[in-house]
Amino acid sequence: MSQSQKPGPRQYSLNVAMAVVVGLGGFITLAIVMGVLLIGLTIDRALNTRPLFTIGFLVLSAPVSIFVMYRVAMSVISKSVVQLKSENSLKEKQP
Prior knowledge:
Layout: H1 9-47, H2 52-93
């Protein structure tokens, strides 16, 4: 794209939506890892097995966070596809 061309409002909205999804995915991943870390440390402290549960939970949190990010991204994409389809059907009805 040359510098004289500016993205339209639709492309700008799509870019903002993608940035929001990426940010939300990062926040969810951080929340899952921090939560699992605290739970693992608490269980290890209670059972006096220092690194066992913490490391185990952190390893298991990787696929869980990937799955949660996938579900969030797919739900946002499905909502945006439905919105785009409704916008296109409204444009077709207008004379």
